[in-house]
Automatic annotation (TrEMBL):
<dbReference type="InterPro" id="IPR036236">
    <property type="entry name" value="Znf_C2H2_sf"/>
</dbReference>
<feature type="domain" description="C2H2-type">
    <location>
        <begin position="199"/>
        <end position="222"/>
    </location>
</feature>
<keyword id="KW-0677">Repeat</keyword>
<feature type="domain" description="C2H2-type">
    <location>
        <begin position="54"/>
        <end position="82"/>
    </location>
</feature>
<feature type="domain" description="C2H2-type">
    <location>
        <begin position="170"/>
        <end position="198"/>
    </location>
</feature>
<keyword id="KW-0479">Metal-binding</keyword>
<keyword id="KW-0862">Zinc</keyword>
<dbReference type="InterPro" id="IPR013087">
    <property type="entry name" value="Znf_C2H2_type"/>
</dbReference>
<protein>
    <recommendedName>
        <fullName>C2H2-type domain-containing protein</fullName>
    </recommendedName>
</protein>
<keyword id="KW-0539">Nucleus</keyword>
<dbReference type="Pfam" id="PF00096">
    <property type="entry name" value="zf-C2H2"/>
</dbReference>
<feature type="domain" description="C2H2-type">
    <location>
        <begin position="83"/>
        <end position="111"/>
    </location>
</feature>
<feature type="domain" description="C2H2-type">
    <location>
        <begin position="25"/>
        <end position="53"/>
    </location>
</feature>
<keyword id="KW-0863">Zinc-finger</keyword>
<feature type="domain" description="C2H2-type">
    <location>
        <begin position="141"/>
        <end position="169"/>
    </location>
</feature>
<feature type="domain" description="C2H2-type">
    <location>
        <begin position="112"/>
        <end position="140"/>
    </location>
</feature>
<feature type="domain" description="C2H2-type">
    <location>
        <begin position="257"/>
        <end position="280"/>
    </location>
</feature>
Length: 355
């Protein structure tokens, strides 16, 4: 083959794959297609044969080929994203991702339509995943430890690293919390620290940090959709998560969250966190009304009941009230005590003592 013919052949293949989007090489197992035969081989090796020899030393991820591994280091850890969008100036690590962003976000191109619900997508792979997850209810990826199933492989890996391997490499710089993946960390910073809640309920205008919580709020609060029913107690819940928590805590008595210090177990993770803060870190409770510190929770409860709920007591000594209020309350207590003692003395000696 002459050099000229070889160049022409490579040029034609480049035009077919890159510009005409022709992908003649199809995977027999998942029917994903590729423009180059080598890409198909790498796909089979990494995805189906589970061969990922290139392991990242900075995070738990591993890769099937060297080029993907190097690109991961540059874009994720070194944060090198040379491809910038001219419209919104968002940057990307690959030119292909910039093109997808421009077509979907700015040009609003969504050529792939679902035949069931007519929802459209910018990428064919997103359409396939939508059909599998939403309509076919497929969750093919199962955790070998707890048998929980997931729609995507990366979600399974994220679950295994965070829940079972206890790998939480993404630390928040504003609080001590750490997370198993970067997306959860970003959502944590936006909703808790930056107080960003861009999703609003059209009915009551309450705002939420996630779109999922808006749908859940509308279904449970406004539409009164309580579809999750406990078969044991017949109690109805709006969320499947709340039903599972109820069954595990009340009926199965499952306490899967264990304190590493004292080995006490809890059903809910946030109960474990509260236990560690209160018992082991010795952080005092705080009065939500006046931020008055109290070392014991029963002291705090007594403080709130007596001072802020207007419960009468002879033993209240509070810095939360003004001198005038304290004088008025003390006068009332003294008068009540004087009336009581007067009645007691009348009963004992039979003499009539006036107030």
């Amino acid at each position: 083959m002459s050099t000229k013919l070889f160049i022409q052949k490579r040029l034609k293949r480049h035009i077919d794959v890159r510009h005409e989007k022709i992908k003649p090489h199809e995977c027999d197992k998942c029917h994903k297609s590729f423009g180059y035969k080598n890409n198909l081989k790498r796909h089979i090796s990494a995805v189906h044969d589970k061969l990922k020899p290139y392991k990242c030393v900075l995070c738990p991820k591993s890769f099937g080929d060297r080029s993907t591994f190097q690109r991961h280091i540059k874009t994720v850890h070194k944060n090198l994203k040379p491809c910038e969008c001219e419209i919104c100036h968002k940057t990307f690590g690959r030119k292909h991702h910039l093109e997808l962003h421009t077509n979907q976000v700015h040009k609003k191109l969504k050529p792939h339509e679902c035949g069931v619900c007519q929802k459209t997508f910018g990428q064919k792979k997103n359409l396939v995943k939508h059909v599998d997850v939403v309509h076919k209810k497929l969750k093919p990826y199962e955790c070998e430890t707890c048998h929980k199933t997931f729609t995507c492989k990366w979600k399974l890996e994220m679950h295994d690293n965070a829940v079972h391997k206890k790998l939480k490499l993404y630390e928040c710089t504003m609080c001590p919390k750490a997370f198993g993946d970067s997306s959860t960390l970003r959502r944590h910073v936006k909703t808790l620290h930056k107080k960003l809640k861009p999703f609003e309920c059209d009915i009551c205008h309450k705002t939420f940090g996630r779109k999922y919580f808006v749908k859940l709020h509308i279904n449970t609060v406004h539409k009164k959709l309580m579809s999750q029913k406990c078969k044991i107690s017949l109690q109805i819940f709006g969320r499947k998560k709340d039903l599972e928590t109820r069954i595990n805590k009340v009926h199965k008595k499952i306490t899967s969250h264990e304190c590493d210090i004292c080995k006490k177990t809890f059903t809910l993770k946030h109960h474990l966190e509260k236990h560690i803060i209160k018992i082991h870190e010795k952080l005092p409770d705080r009065c939500e009304v006046y931020n008055q510190l109290s070392e014991q929770k029963n002291d705090l409860d007594m403080h709130v009941d007596m001072v802020h709920e207007n419960s009468p007591s002879l033993y209240v000594t509070s810095t939360c009230e003004s001198p005038a209020e304290r004088h008025e309350r003390s006068t009332g207590i003294f008068q009540a005590l004087r009336n009581f003692l007067t009645k007691v003395m009348n009963m004992i000696c039979g003499r009539k003592y006036s107030d």
